[in-house]
Request: fold
Amino acid sequence: MSNADFLVLGGGIAALNAATAIRERNKLADILMVSDEPILPYSRPMLSKSPLAGAPYGYPMQPKEWYDAQRIQFRSATTTNAMNLAAKTITLATGELITYDKCVYALGAAAGRPPIKGADNGQVVTIRTAQDMRTLKSLALGATKAVVIGGGVIGIEMAWELKKAGILVVILEIAETVMARVFEPKIANIIENTVRESGIEIITNVGIQEIVNESSMCVRLNTGVEIPADFIVLSAGIRPNIILAKEAGIDVQHSVVVDEHMRTSDPFVYACGDCAQLNDVNTGTWTQSQAQGYIAGANAAGDHLVYKNDPAPLHLNAADTALFAVGDLGKQPNNDYEMYLLKSTAKCNPWAVNMAGGSQGDSYCALYAVNSRITGAALIGDLSNMKKVHDAVREQKNIQCLLQEVGKYEKV
Reply:
């Protein structure tokens, strides 16, 4: 049996920030991190950023020496099988029992896997871990055609990376447009047209019957149309890792339920990141996980910090353009929105292209407001107003004031 004053379950940014916050407040406590991945915590958003062009993935955010200096014990490739709240213990897959005084539950999420017949073969890969990227890189060697199922940020970014590698790519999206869960149709159509113009085929409103892998592989649609592929990337959101908490008796809905201090229904367990929900919301974003992890760790160590649900930004870099979006983008059915879609009167300037990830093509700014107060904003192409619109959404600024500040745009 092992003992830990503070046990952190997980190996992502939420877990890392939790351990960091604990050590800042308690220099003597024993801190143990347990992760089922075989490597140190790394930047998950970087997995879809130029992985086939040699960009590093799975690179640790902190080196082993940092953990040693902070006296944080890190166990990799270690699975937790059970949690006993009354005894304040966890049981590892090896059978080892670990006791704790406080626990931070930061087990994150797995890649979503819709129940598509035939999706369990080795030529279908999700994008969630560094091992997934190693598998993808192996599948891409010598491949000429691929299908990406899912037209969200990861799906579009992966389609673009494959296209840059010389592979013909088709995106299959069940909704009417790509990114329909995030954007209303005007902006979604601009994004979709930009992706199409980059040379990536998109088929929307699709129903997938099965993945066929006989003499050759294809995705068979409900219409009977077959889309051939050497391999398939499945990008269908996330599935929070809640089973351990649920079986232990912690309050769980679609994610682990927490309050504004990141406390669960058990007073000795905190939760944060992709596996946690506050006020029924789990955005599944990197910035949310960063902030929640730190607050969970700080409060587990005796602090009293409050998590404020700061609007989490969304970034996309693909198809020779860039996208930044934040806040409520016209998707709440009970709100009466004012919507301004603006188009730049000039192409992107060099600063926007080189420093902010913009493109040489058209640029757009979309602003959404309720009762003249800004709820959300999206920038496509020129991202030089990124901080300005993010602050405006955070402060719920008057939309007319922001319209005077965003620069040379004309209303579409």
Q: What stands out?
A: Residues 124-234 form a domain with the FAD/NAD(P)-binding domain fold (CATH 3.50.50.60).
